[in-house]
Amino acid sequence: MQNLTELPANATSQRSLSVIIKVCVTIPFFIIFLCCIAVMLHIFVTHRQFLETSRYILFAYMLINDTLQLLSSVVLFLCVMGQVKFAIVYCVPLLFISTATFQNTPLILATMSLERYVAIFYPLQQPATWRSDRIWIIILSVWFISCIFPIIEYSIGELDLAVDVLSTPVLCKTVVVNSSPIQKLFKAALNVLFFAVVAVIILFTYVRILLETRKLRQDKESVSKAMHTVLFHGFQLLLCMLAFTHPITESLIVLNANWLPEDVAFFNYFCFMLIPRFLSPLIYGFRDQNLRGYIGKT
Q1: What is the spatial distance between Cα 176 and Cα 92, in angstroms, rounded to a whole number?
Q2: Between the N and C ends of the chain, which has fewer C-beta atoms within 10 Å?
Q3: Which domains are present in the chain?
Q4: Which GO terms describe its cellular component (predicted)?
């Protein structure tokens, strides 16, 4: 393989320009996201009524989770773009946070759909766990499930004996830690399981609310809002699933355009990882009348 120092000067400058453009596109995008999230979290903290409602507590939890997911992925992206290498012992925590928060998102969507189901069907006898003062039990359970599987995933693999986890500098990428076939199979099966279970839960809650609409004594408006909320969680799940389309997009781009592998990887990262994570919480936040009213005053 040709060394970078042996490449023509114009090729090196083109690569440097490409890296600068990618960084200049990603960083402002991420900063705007952080500002929007900061505004929403500030509203939650300063207005107690939001912290007394389970739905908004779960939404705030989703905002924090997506922020951690994007923060870890952007740091990893910058390290790869800058060819920054460090020991695996420092790389694994970043990969762990990125993986755990990625798997946490569909579980949060399922939990939020179930919360709407419980609120509609048990308005007066709501289970204690779903009350605002006990919802943290469910949040901790969801976070535990999201964390335990990455630990298993990293534990079943075998590292190269020539690599010292404490001192050998490596490029912090998933393939460095998840290199064995059994890890790839475990991760693929786990992602399919996560998204399939969440899809079933969202479909179940939506159909149940739809079928029971006429039997409920509550006003039609609140039931209609609950249906729209659950349907939106399904849309959010579809946005998250775009992350799994990268093999298809890579094949299409390779067949129809003469792109470099790193350009294809950036295209997939920006369009199918960054933008969906950016849009999902913002659309949910701005479509809520209570939040939208406070955001307009901020």
Answers
A1: 10
A2: N
A3: 17-293 (1.20.1070.10)
A4: membrane
